[in-house]
Amino acid sequence: MIKNYFKIAFRNLAKNRMFSLLNIVGLSFGLAGFMFIATYVVDELSYDRFQTNADRIVRLNTHIHMGESKLDMARTSDMMGPILRDEYTEVEDYTRLYISSGAKLVKNGNRWIKEARVAHTDSSFFRLFSYQRLHGNLHHALAAPNTVVLSRSAAERYFNTTDVVGRTLETNDAGNTVYQITAVIEDMPKNSHFNYDFLFAMENAPYENWGALLSHNFTTYILLRDPTDRTLLTSHLDEYVHKHCLPAAKQFMDISSMEEFRTQGNVFYYDITPIRDIHLHSNLMGELQPNGNIQYVYIFSAISLFILLIACVNFINLATARSASRAKDVGVHKLLGSSRSGVAGHFLTESLLLSFGGICLAIVIVITALPLFNDLSGKTFMIYDLINRKSLPFIGLLTLFVGLIAGYYPAAYLSSFRPLQVIKSRSVITSGKSFFRSSLVIFQFAISIILIVGTFIITTQLQYIQHKKIGYERDNILLVSDYHVLGDQARAFRDEVLNLSGIKMGTVSGYLPVSSSSRNDNPYSKETVMSTRNSVSMQTWYVDDQYLPTFDLELTVGRNFSSSRLADSTSVILNETAVKHFEFGSEKEAIGKKIYFQLDKNMMAYDVIGVVKDFNFESLRDPVTPLGFFLGNHPVEAAFKIETADIPTLLARMENSWNKFAPGYAFSYRFMDDAFDNMYRAERRISRLSLTFAALATGIACLGLFGLAAFMAEQRSKEIGVRKVLGSSVVGIVVMLCRDFVKLVLIALLIAAPISWWGMNKWLEDFTYRIEISWWIFVLTGLIATVIALFTVSTQAIRAARTNPVDSLRNE
Amino acid sequence: MIKLEHIFKWYNIGGTRSFVIKDINLEIEQGDFISIMGPSGSGKSTLLNIIGLLDEPSEGHYYFMGEDVLALKPKKRITLFQSHIGYVFQSYHLIDELTVYENIETPLIYKNLSGKERKAIVGDMLDRFGIVGKKDLFPAQLSGGQQQIVGIARALAASPKLLLADEPTGNLNSKQGEEIMALFKQLNEEGMTIIQVTHSEKNAEYGKRVINLLDGQVK
C-alpha cells in the first residue's frame, strides 16, 4: 500500500515537472531560511547556559537618575561585592571584572601587540564561572598579584603551545608590568556575554578610587546560595543604599535622606540580572560586549515562520488549482475501492516527497549560503553548527511537519470528491474554492509587502542618518590610536606629522564625537553650593585649542581656547544644550558666567568663554546632552584633518615618524567616517537582513503566483478560445487574466500598510532623530508589488492569449 | 439479484421538480445481460449509477442480493459495492501514472490482498485478455480499444458478480467496439451478470434483454 502511494506520488510529480519544481524550489528557500534563523535563535538563546552555576549567578546593575542625567549601568563600585557577601547570608560568593580602557599592549618578542580581550578579575572568578582547565590550578590562579590566566588561543599565539604555566608576559600597564602565567583555560565559548583571552589579577587593576562607594566601574557577579534567593537579595539592595551609599553621598552633596532625594524626582537603586538573561534582556551602559535583543529574536522567528508558510501556501494553492485535473484520479481510485483516507494518503505522500526534495535542496542552499548568512548575522557558524547529529532529527521532523502542513488541506479537499461527480461529467469540477486560494495569495503578498515597506523605511532612516548634518566634520579626518604610548614624544610626533604635506591640522584628545570613544560625566552647578536641584550632569571633555577647528565645530558666540592665554585652563566652552540646562537665558548671556565643580575638598570655578552649536556626539538614537570643553591633556587619540588624494603615501610617512617616536608599537589608525558608520552597524545589519527576507518572501510568493497563473490560463483556455473567436484582442485577454491577480495584490497592500506603519513606527521610536513615514513609501511598495506580480502573471497570460483558439476548442 | 421498486430521481430546479427517472420497476436475475437504450437525456446513465450505488434515488426501494441498499449505512454500501460490482467507463478512466499491470492491481491493493495473491490474479487477468506483452506500458501508450480492455480487466480483477458498463464502446471505432462486445458476450456466457448502457442497436443485440428508456420511463 505504502509502496503504491510512493509510486503514484513519484510518477505524478515527475509528470508535472513545473509544478514540482516550483514547489521544491519555493520550499527549499523557505526551509533554508528557517534553518538559518533557527540556528541563529538557538544560538542567541543558548548564551551563558553552559555555566554550571548559571541559575545561581546574577549581575548587579546601578540606576541613578538625577535631573536630565540618567545612568543605567551594568557596573558597581569595587566595594559592593565584598559588602554584600559579608552582610547577607544568601550571598555565597562574588567576583568582579575590571575593564580599564578596554585594551592592553602585550609584548610578544620585541613587538607590542594590542590585545582587546583583556580583563582584571578576582581569584573567585573560577569559583563562579565554569571553564575547562588545560594547565595550572584555577582555584589559586589569580590569588597573588602579577598573575595572569590565558586562553588556549592566546597561549598558542604567544608561545606556540598551551603548556606555559610559569612563563611570563609583559604588558604596558603601570610602567611595564611582568605577569606570571598561572593557568591556561580552553577558549571561552562564543555564546557568552563576555569573552576574554587574558584574565589578569585584580590587584594589578589600574584603578585609583578603591573603596569609593559611588564610583561605578566594576562588573560584579553574585553567586547565590540558592536560585530562589533572587528576591531576597533584591530586597537587601535597598538596605545597602541606605546603609552605605547615602552616608558616602552626604560627604559632597546637600542631601539629607533618600526620601527627600526621591521626592525631588530622583532615582537611585540597584537591581540584578540573572546571567542567562544578560545577552537578550539587558542593554545598559557598560555592558561587556554588545548584547543581542530578544525583540529581534522574536521578529526573526516570526519572519522565518512566515516565509516557510508562504512556501507551504504555494503547495496548497497549486495543488487545489490543479484539482480539476486530479479529480479524475480521485474518482477512479474511489471507484476501485479506495477509502477517503486512502486518497488523502496519495496527496500527503506527494507533499511529503516534495518536502523531502525541498529539504535536500535547502541543505545545498544552506551550505552554499553560509558565508552570506554569517556576514548578515554577524555570527561565525560552521556547517557543523547547522547540520549535526543533534539537529538532524529536528530537520527530519521539520520535513515531516512541512509536508503535513502543506499537504493537509489539498488532501482533505481533494479526497472529498465523490466518484459520481467524476463519472457523470467531464467538466463539472471547477477549480473551486477560489476564495480560499485568493485569501492565501493575499496572505503571501501581505507578508511580502510588510517586509518591503520595512526595508524601505530602515534604508531611508539609514540614509537620513548618513546625510544628516550632525554639526561636525567627519570626512577626511584620520584618527591615530594608542597615542598615549608616545609618552613625552607626543608633541614631537604631532609637530612632525603636521609638517607633512596633506595634513591640514590636528588635535589630540580621547574625547571624540562617536559613541565608542572616551566619556566623562560630572556634576556641575552655577552656584557654589551644589544640590540635587541645581546640578547639571555634563560631559567633561579635555581638548586642546585645535579641537574646534579640526572638527569644524561652529562657535555661536564667544571664542575658542587660546594656548597663549594662561587663564584658559579655568575656562569652559559649552554646547547649546548645556546653556539651556544651566538656565543662563541666552547664549550671549552665558558668556562670562561661572560654573562650579567640587573636586575632592576644593570648589573649582570655570569661566564660560564660548558656546558651540549643538552637534551629535552620540548616535542619533539619543538626544544631545550637555557638554563642556575644557583645556587639558587627554592623549588617547589624535585626529588629523587630511587634504590629499594620495592617502597611502601619507599613511606610510606617518607610520615612519610613528616608528621613530614609538618603536615597537604598532601604528594603528582609522577614519572618522568609518568610526561614525560603526555606530550604526546594527541598523545596517537589520537593513540588509530585512532586504534579504523581503526578497526571499517575495520571490517564493512569486513562484506560487507563477504556477497559479499558469494553471489559471490552462483552465480558462476554452474561455480564452471562445473570447478570441468572438473577436477579443490579445491585449484584452491579457488584461482580463492579470486583473484578478492585481486586485489581490492591492487588497494585500491595504492589509499590510497599517500593520507595517505601526510596526515601523515602533522601530523608529528608538531614534531621537528620525524620518517621518510618508505615504509615498506605501505607494511605491504597492507599485513594486504590482509590477512584480504583473510581470509574473503576464508571461503566462500572454502565452495563453496568443494560442490559436482552434487548438483549445478542438480538445472538447 | 437486483430488484428496483418505484424508483424516482428528480432535481429541484427553480422550485419545480425536474424528473430524470420516473417510477422504474425492474428485476434482474443472476447471469442476465441487459442493454439499456434510449436517446440522450432519457436517464440511462442515472439508472446505471443508481444500480451501481454511485447515486441515490429520490424515492423508491432498491434490493441488491436481498439487501435493502438504501437502508444501509454509507460504509456498508461501499463494501457491498467493492465486493460485488465492477465498473467500465466510456472514457476508460485508467490511472495515467500507473502501468497496465499496476492499474489492474490497484483494486486488489484496496481489498488488502497480499502481494502473492495480487500477482496471481493480475497474471491471470493479463493472460485471459491477452495483454501480457503490454503489462509494463502506460495507458497513453495504448490504443483506445486496448485501454478499454485494460479497464475491463481491472473491473473484473476483484471478481465482481455484476459488471456495469456505461457506453463501453462510445470512444471506440466499430472494429474495437465489436471486440469489446464479443468479450462481454463471452463473459456473460461464463456466468457474469452485465448491465450496459448503449446508444447502438447493434451493441444492444449482444444482450439478452433490452430496456428502452424515454424521459425517465421504461417504454
Automatic annotation (TrEMBL), chain A:
It is a multi-pass membrane protein. It comes from the Bacteria. It is found in: Cell membrane. InterPro entries: ABC3_permease_C (IPR003838), MacB_PCD (IPR025857), Macrolide_Exporter_MacB (IPR050250). The chain crosses the membrane at residues 21-42, 296-318, 352-373, 393-414, 435-458, 689-713, 725-753, 773-793. The keyword Transmembrane applies. The keyword Cell membrane applies. Keywords: Cell membrane, Membrane, Transmembrane, Transmembrane helix. Residues 20-234, 445-616 form the MacB-like periplasmic core domain. Coiled coil: none annotated. Residues 302-416, 692-805 form the ABC3 transporter permease C-terminal domain. This is ABC transporter permease. It comes from Sphingobacterium arenae. The lineage of its organism: Bacteria, Pseudomonadati, Bacteroidota, Sphingobacteriia, Sphingobacteriales.
Automatic annotation (TrEMBL), chain B:
Keywords: ATP-binding, Nucleotide-binding, Transport. PROSITE patterns: ABC_TRANSPORTER_2. Coiled coil: none annotated. The keyword ATP-binding applies. Residues 2-219 form the ABC transporter domain. Pfam families: ABC_tran. GO terms for molecular function: ATP binding. InterPro entries: AAA+_ATPase, ABC_transporter-like_ATP-bd, ABC_transpr_LolD-like, MacB-like_ATP-bd, P-loop_NTPase. The keyword ATP-binding applies. This is ABC transporter ATP-binding protein. The lineage of its organism: Bacteria, Pseudomonadati, Bacteroidota, Sphingobacteriia, Sphingobacteriales.
